[in-house]
Structures are given as structure tokens and as C-alpha cells.
Amino acid sequence: MESESQRIERLQKMSSVLKSMKDCSSIKEIEEKTGVPRSTIQRYLNRPDYYEDLVLDGYIKKDNLEKLMNYTKNWLQNSKKEGLKKGGTISQEKYGFSKGEDGKFNGHTR
């Protein structure tokens, strides 16, 4: 069970994470900007009860709750797409790729 001081610290961190989302395109960027670990950021952004706590403590207005949760859900989906794309690009740069005579992907060249 979390103490009141831990709860307040969590709400402050979550608030800073949510504010950083506007300027960042990945969880890694948010981590670098806020100092909050990636796994913690993911947990914060995927817990509806944490958003409700933000409303109860006055960090956000109740009217904005659903809009914020939808924005976060879309942001996470876009972030994942971009991360997978970036990972594929980095992998191809590191290891190369080859295609067979039929034009199908065979794997990396190493």
C-alpha cells in the first residue's frame, strides 16, 4: 500500500510525464526529459485509476479526463509504430538485408 507522500510523488511524476508527451515522440525521450524510468512511464500511462487520481487531486479537470486518456492511448499507439519502424531501420543499417531471386526477404547478410 502506498503512503500519502508516495501517492503525491507518483501524481507529480505522472503529471510531468503527461506534460512531456506533447514534445516527445517516444517513451525513451520522455525518460530522458523527466528522469522517470521507461517501465514506470508505461505503467503510469496504462493505468486508468492513476488518471482518476489526477482528477481527485486537481491536476486535471474531470471534463478533460476522457480526452486525455484517448490522447494518451493514441500517442502510445503512434509511439509503438515509430519505435518498431526505427528499430527495423537500425537493424538494417547494422546487419544489412538480402532478398532472394523471387524478391522475398531472406534475412540479414551477416
Task: Describe the protein.
This protein is mainly alpha-helical and 110 residues long. Helices cover 66% and strands 5% of the residues. It has a two-stranded antiparallel sheet with strand order 1-2. A hairpin with a 5-residue loop joins strand 1 (98-99) and strand 2.
Order of helices and strands: HHHHHEE
- Count of individual helical segments: 5
% residues in beta strands = under 5%
Share of helix, binned: 55-70%
Question: How confident is the prediction overall: mean pLDDT?
Answer: 89
For the secondary structure, the number of strands is 2
Contiguous runs where pLDDT drops below 50 for at least 5 residues: none
User: Biggest sheet: strands, sense, closure?
Assistant: 2 strands, antiparallel
Distance between the termini: 50 Å
Which oligomeric form is depicted? single chain
Compute the CA-based radius of gyration: 19 Å
Structural class: mainly alpha
